[in-house]
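so my prof wants the structure for this chain in the tokens format not the other one, which i didnt know existed until like an hour ago. anyway here's the sequence
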Amino acid sequence: MYLPLLLFLELGSHNVLGVGTGCLLVRFLRFRCESYFRCGSVLFDVKPKVRKADLFDFDEEFNRLFRLITNSLTRLIIVRGLRRTGKTSLILTVLNELGVPYVFIDVREVVRSRRGLYEVLSRALSDFLRRYSLRRALIDSVVKALSSVRGVGIHGFEVVLNWGRDRPLLSELFREFDRVSGDVGVRLVIVIDEAQRLSGPVGVEVWNAVAHAYDFLNNLLFILSGSEMGVLGSILSNPESPLFGRAYAEVTTRKLNRDESLEFLRRGFSEVGIEVDEGELEGVVDGLDGVIGWLTYYGYSRSVGGRDLDSIISDAVGMARQELENFIRLRASRRYRVVLRLLALDVREWGLLKRRLEDYEGSRISDRVLHDILTTLKRHSIIDENLEFTDPVIRETAREL
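here's what i got, hopefully its the right format
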């Protein structure tokens, strides 16, 4: 249904609709057609959702975030939830439905240097200029404001920030965005996705700038998302954190229950016109435990290549293995690998877990050593308080460590 209308718009509809309207419709329809050409289903599209019609069964979370963003008193919003439970899709969908301008800073990859931070910021600002290229008053004001800041280069829609001595301070960038927002009469939203990845001196630099903006700039709203909930919490609750003591509102994403998971898969396969045996769907739901990101990956892979469940799970485990290996590599102790494997093998009783770890070490270990390992795994939302894995695919991955 979208392709004929897209062709009509591409072939000269600007004369009928006007340049601005025609461009907007072409951009929207290209996105929709790309989604259908990839797998035939918007629901199974593996990219983050940006329209409410494509956001499955998150009405309560959508409405809460919508109300918070439109409340002029809100200064800071935390969107938290386990990995792959739809945080990014929820945020982008609400922002796009509202039509409010936003800068999206993606720090899913750990940023450990100022150079890495400023490269991420450069991409975020470049994406901002492209996203709102048709809102000339806003873009012209932003370009003029950023061009006046030392260490900022702008070439078309490409923004390059220096990271050396003449780098722009984050507080300067926030102040210019605040001034532009006031001048054009809009409230700008700054999203930091997977905010807990900003740690060490780089994290302190960012959180100091956010804290200053929170206190003194009235036209900016910050949204921080995070899946490592214990780490994210420390950014807000640690007395030594620059953001300590700032009031914030919270939205939490969740796993789908069994009925919701089955309905998600049925609806997605209905979109692509594929019939899948109900027994297979139930097996998928049992295995993936309501994690919508993994359910989407299964639906996409099944739709595109007609692949079987075992091969899809094998690929998912491969992706999860990289995440887990990255986590282990950043830990000084090799004991994390052993503890993760033992937990995946259902060794969760404290005494037995400690004895097995001691068997591996060939010597006694203190209770404190095991306590610290388990606490770290909980803070990073790899396991819960019952020492159960929060993600079934991560659990399968840990079995093979």
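also thought this was worth mentioning. The chain has 18 helices and seven strands.
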